[in-house]
Amino acid sequence: MKIAIASGKGGTGKTTLSVNLASYLARKRPVVLTDLDVEEPNSGLFLHGRLKESKEMHRMVPSWDSNCCTLCGLCQQVCNFNAVIKMGDRVMVFPELCHGCYACSELCPAGSLPMVPVKMGEVRRYRVDGVDFIDSRLDIGQEQAVPLIAQTLDYVDECFPDDVCKIYDSPPGTSCPVIEAVKDVDFVLLVTEPTPFGLNDLKLAVETVRGLNKPFAVVINREGLGNADVRSYCEAEKIDIIAAIPNRREIAEMYSRGELLYQALPEVARELENIDAFLQRLAEEERA
């Protein structure tokens, strides 16, 4: 089963849930945790293990060959992202704007825009206490997270069979990186907090996963903070709340030290068990 842990905003506790749930489930079955927040991955702050593989990831962008170019301008016409522009007697390529669609390269009658690889980031694979942990990191200065997320997902599928539980710590928000991270998963866990900001962004996240036709449920983090509006909203929308992690100073202190919560706090372990039981029922229903 592929499970994305997402939210409508940053700071709700996606990574807290991801690392603790992955470690908790790994005591029972094989688990792969992948940090897809490639612009700011931080799951590795909580999981320290043996590096098994490091792999550079590249995307393809056009490179202008002035020797065979006829300056026809077709490349500029077919580029929807203004990444290729004809200016006088030269063609300028802006790799930061290129989406790698190959249109300019494939349609160039002179073949003057061959696609070349450009390093965009790195994927590292670790083994940590029964968890296979994948850390995907975008290079500084690279603007586009989506290509690296897509290649990281392919890497996970190539390395691990379908029957392994795959947990994806997704980027925050509801923009293109989130869509790429959740579009092919089996289930989405939306993490929120019981505050007006949490509710506002939960609504955006719910609208997004419903638009993608993905089954989902909600996990409330920092339960006891704020008000009951999130619970009222979920009840009105018939959304399952399958766990609620309490708002406790001990949790904040352990988080700041990069420690897993469930090993020391039974109340957190109980909530993770609730999530596990829910996912197990879901898997049984799908098999039936």
In short:
The protein has nine helices and eleven strands.
Output the radius of gyration.
22 Å
CA-based shape: elongated
Mean of pLDDT: 94
- Strand order in the largest sheet: 3-6-7-2-8-1-9-10-11
What gap, in angstroms, lies between the N and C termini? 15 Å
| Count, helices | 9
Number of strands: 11
Structural class: alpha/beta
SSE string: EHEEHEEHEEHEHEHEHEHH
Unreliable residue runs: none
| Biggest sheet record | 9 strands, mixed
Beta content comes to 25-35%
Helical fraction equals: 25-40%
What would your notes on this structure say?
The protein has helices spanning 14-25, 74-78, 103-107, 146-159, 176-182, 196-211, 229-236, 249-256, 266-287, and strands at 2-6, 31-35, 50-62, 84-87, 90-93, 115-128, 131-138, 165-169, 187-192, 216-223, 241-246. It has a nine-stranded mixed beta sheet with strand order 3-6-7-2-8-1-9-10-11, with helices on both faces. A two-stranded antiparallel sheet has the order 4-5. Helix content is 34%, strand content 27%. It contains nine helices and eleven strands. The chain is of the alpha/beta class. The model has no long low-confidence stretch (mean pLDDT 94).
